[in-house]
Write a structure and sequence with these properties.
Blueprint lengths: L1 H21 L18 H7 L3 E11 L5 H4 L1 H6 L9 E14 L4 E4 L7 E7 L5 E3 L1 E6 L4 E5 L21 E6 L7 E12 L9 E4 L11 E3 L5 E8 L10 E5 H14 L5 E2 L2 E5 L2 H7 L7 E6 L4 H5 L6 E5 L2 E2 L3 H9 L6 E8 L2 E8 L1 E2 L23 E5 L13 E6 L4 H5 L6 E5 L2 E2 L3 H7 L7 E7 L2 E7 L1
Antiparallel strand pairs: 1-2, 1-4, 2-3, 3-7, 4-5, 6-7, 8-9, 8-11, 9-10, 10-13, 11-12, 12-13, 14-21, 15-16, 16-17, 17-18, 17-19, 19-20, 22-23, 23-24, 24-25, 24-26, 26-27
């Protein structure tokens, strides 16, 4: 057994040496292999002080109640007031990364601080500070915190677009409530999406990421941030070698907007589309299966003004290729309203380019009761994202209404009972045909909202008051 371990270790050293000699992108820093015992420690000594523990205190409702006391007849007979559940608190922990040492700015995951009553940051030297929440963006799972502290260490940021599958990476965080823990591995995949966030472009890695690692750092062998650890793929809650991190380039775009505007302002093109599949490409006579087929162009939208039409296949935005609808949503949604973008598309076999001036996204309700780009919607709907019914929805063409794209955990919309995938067909007994109808009927001045919902083949009413 000892011989096998030594053989594998020797092989690993040879591989690392080849990477250095060959000038591979994931090269080992100079001097690391010159030591008698090669180690990542010199890199980590400079990096680990920039990764912090984020402790969150959230309010919950006590579940230990006598159901007899909740019976309305019992309370009425004994003239007892209605019982209110006593508040209790739950502690949760995650990780964060110091991105600006001078101002004490920390980036973490939005789900790490979700519904927080109090946020405490614990540094690697065991100092603790109350943190202020500067802003969040649930669509990308990014939150920005600030602490008032001196002698901080910040983590330099790398260009995540330069990552390649096979590059070595290191994950740093605080899993399972432990203090700083380091794991290493490689980049297993790039551009992963479909995991639940609105704007996704995940880095997949086999470096172990476990509960508590969320919000921590994924770094390269130069000690630079390439991603923020966000999620794992698991059937048991433990690590099975498939973890995901938000690329640093996406993180910094969201971070810069939060720091400048206090929120993320998203551009809007105004199209409903679907991925260009092999079958659709054959039907359209195209020799590519990468792009987005426009199924619908919204009236009076930037897309309509630019001249885009249904059946057009969008292939690039500002010269950057668009392989699927996630690419398009990310390319548009991370630009400011009013931005000019060049849209490259194929129509009748001919490639064309038009310039569109993006509008303001109006289908996002703010989180935690605050409205951002969707201030005309009732606050009872805060935390939910709404859109037109996409063509690939099982009920598309069979019902009219708007679809609930996502619901932020702990938000007013979630507490009211809305679920991702719900289709709202009426508000206060008035039919909803599109987003414009929904906005006019579910306005901020409504005292209560009676929603008729289609959900997974069934129907129900929800009363929000």
């Amino acid at each position: 057994m000892t011989h096998i371990i030594r053989t594998r270790f020797t092989a690993l050293l040879c591989l690392l040496a080849l990477l250095v000699a060959g000038g591979a992108q994931a090269s080992v820093p100079s001097g690391m292999l010159d030591q008698e015992d090669p180690s990542l420690a010199p890199i980590l000594e400079d990096v680990m002080p920039a990764v912090v523990n984020v402790v969150v205190k959230t309010k919950t409702r006590s579940q230990h109640r006598n159901p007899l006391f909740d019976d309305p007849f019992f309370r009425r007979f004994f003239d007892m007031p209605e019982r209110q559940p006593a508040p209790s608190y739950r502690m949760a922990a995650g990780s964060g990364v110091i991105i600006d040492a001078a101002d004490g700015i920390i980036i973490t995951g939005d789900h790490v601080i979700d519904n927080a009553e109090q946020i405490t940051v614990r540094l690697s030297d065991d100092r603790e500070f109350d943190a202020e929440l500067i802003g969040t963006d649930s669509a990308s799972d990014i939150a920005v915190l600030q602490i008032d502290a001196d002698d901080l260490t910040e983590l330099p940021v790398a260009d995540s677009d330069s990552l390649r599958v096979g590059d070595f990476v290191i994950a740093i965080g605080n899993p399972f409530g432990l203090t700083q823990t380091v794991t290493s591995g490689i980049v297993s995949g790039l551009g992963r999406h479909g995991l639940g966030n609105r704007f996704e472009n995940f880095i997949q890695t086999d470096a172990s990421i476990n509960p508590g690692n969320s919000g921590g750092a994924l770094i390269n062998l130069d000690g630079q941030l390439v991603g923020i650890n966000s999620a794992i793929l698991s059937q048991s809650g433990g690590n099975i070698g498939i973890g995901f991190a938000i690329p640093s380039n996406l993180v910094m775009k969201v971070y810069n907007q939060i720091m400048e505007y206090g929120e993320v302002q998203r551009g809007r093109l105004g199209v409903v589309g679907q991925d260009l599949t092999h079958d659709l490409a054959e039907a359209f006579g195209l020799d590519t299966n990468k792009g987005v087929v426009i199924a619908k162009v919204t009236d009076d939208s930037p897309a309509e003004e630019a001249g885009l039409q249904p059946r057009d296949v969008i292939t690039a935005v500002d010269g950057t290729s668009v392989d699927n609808f996630s690419d398009l949503a990310r390319a548009i949604g991370l630009r400011l309203p009013g931005s000019e973008v060049d849209i490259t598309f194929i129509r009748d076999g001919e490639e064309k380019t038009v310039t569109a001036v993006l509008g303001e996204a109006s289908n996002v309700a703010g989180n935690n009761g605050s409205h951002s780009a969707n201030g005309d919607l009732n606050e009872k709907l805060a935390g939910a994202r709404f859109s037109e019914i996409p063509d690939d929805h099982p009920l598309a063409g069979r019902v009219e209404g708007v679809v609930v794209e996502s619901v932020h955990r702990g938000s007013p919309a979630a507490r009211a009972g809305l679920r991702s995938g719900d289709i709202i067909t009426s508000v206060n007994r008035k039919p909803v045909s599109n987003l414009d109808d929904f906005h006019s009927l579910a306005g901020a001045d409504s005292d209560q909202l009676l929603l008729h919902i289609r959900r997974k083949g069934g129907a129900l009413f929800l009363l929000l008051k």
